[in-house]
Design goal:
244 residues, alpha/beta, TIM Barrel, 8 strands
Length: 244
């Protein structure tokens, strides 16, 4: 099928661009985790990207996560790909009433945008007998239409969240403003990096606070230059369309 070589080519292009960004920033590409955003991908593509070695998959919507995860498990097994090796990330807005549905399906929630959501995740994770890795979502662009902690409230919230049982606070996540203004994009990522450093230096979050999930297809290279450890890429990887 034509989507296989096309996907391999897009993956090679993506990893090359990650490496080039790392070279400009004096960083090791091995320090960057690629999360493949499968919102627009077919299940065939998900299986193939996992075969290529990308085992971190991210979904924006709860219903899509449930469907993709179930269909992926079936098709991966048929294709000889180990479905249990894949780690699923919830990267979109998560309502508190969906937490019980989502937590059994994922290995990380990147989009924790309020203390109340963190508390609900803590309660549910305890009931499941597990610890849930999370990232705090930061509204670094200070956009009123976006979810996330403000820059001013994030440090105090991080200390509160880090004390919750059954939660491992692993770092911060942000989305830059949707704009062609590279200066604004870099500023949003830079603000998140500075906030990350402040929270780390305060010492109330533990040694597991190590990640900055910043950057998508349109801006991941800038994010890497500004310190991202996780990039969330969808349309660049799956640009050639999905097989039926």
């Amino acid at each position: 099928m034509s989507w296989k070589p096309a996907l391999a080519a897009q993956y090679s292009l993506t990893t090359a661009r990650i490496a080039q960004a790392c070279a400009r920033a004096g960083r090791d590409p091995a320090a960057i985790t690629l999360v493949a955003v499968t919102k627009l991908a077919s299940v065939h593509q998900m299986v193939e990207i996992a075969r290529l070695g990308v085992v971190q998959l991210g979904e924006n919507r709860v219903q899509t996560l449930e469907t993709h995860r179930r269909e992926f498990a079936v098709q991966a097994t048929a294709a000889g790909v180990e479905a249990s090796a894949v780690r699923w990330h919830m990267i979109g807005h998560l309502q508190r009433n969906k937490v019980k549905q989502v937590l059994p399906m994922v290995q990380m929630v990147q989009s924790v945008d309020s203390l109340r959501l963190a508390q609900e995740i803590s309660t549910t994770a305890m009931s499941l007998g597990r610890t849930m890795p999370i990232l705090m979502e930061i509204n670094a662009g200070q956009e009123p239409q976006k979810y996330g902690f403000t820059l001013e409230e994030a440090a105090a919230a991080a200390e509160q969240i880090a004390r919750l049982p059954a939660i491992e606070l692993c770092g911060l996540m942000t989305m830059a403003p949707l704009t062609d203004d590279i200066g604004r994009i870099r500023q949003a990522f830079g603000r998140t990096r500075e906030l990350f450093g402040q929270i780390r230096a305060a010492g109330g979050v533990g040694d597991g606070f190590v990640h900055m999930s910043m950057g998508m297809t349109s801006d991941f290279e800038i994010a890497i230059e500004e310190g991202a450890t996780i990039v969330r890429i969808g349309s660049l990887l799956f640009a050639e369309g999905a097989a039926a």
